[in-house]
Amino acid sequence: MQKSSAILFCLGIFLVFTSCDSSHMFDAYKSVPGAWNKDDVVQFNFTQPDTTNAYNLFVNVRNNNDYKYSNLFLIVDLEFPHGKSLTDTLEYKMAKPNGEFLGEGASSIKENKLWYKDHFIFNESGNYKVKIQHAMRESGKVNGVINLEGITDVGFRIEKPTTH
């Protein structure tokens, strides 16, 4: 009887922690096997939460100790249902000046929640696509980094803005 009580207790704790984050409307990750090739586009498809409320959009990135840069350049393309597209080249800081990685996590994997768009309104009904690819270059070099090592997962998240 004690074993089943312990299992139920653990299940209850799990449900409490997983149900606490009700602010997200969409949250998905895709693994990057090995190195992230410059031509590999990570894509997420979703239906807009609604067409009247504003949302915060994030690109989520997990990196490990194989990541050898202090920043990260991304090209993010948001495709609307009726053909419109917004393309942004974004730069994110990934490490402190002393080389310590930013992000959450006590292990060698750090999770970074990177701002993409603030108070964004999905003004078209239908299916949207977000395409993310890296645009890294080494200092002083014209050609980009072909295979970016150290990025393990790329994600996309939509949240309701918090009200204070």
From TrEMBL:
Organism: Formosa undariae
Pfam families documented for this protein: GldH_lipo
Keywords, in A-Z order: Lipoprotein
PROSITE patterns reported in the protein's UniProt record: PROKAR_LIPOPROTEIN (PS51257)
Protein name in UniProt: Gliding motility lipoprotein GldH
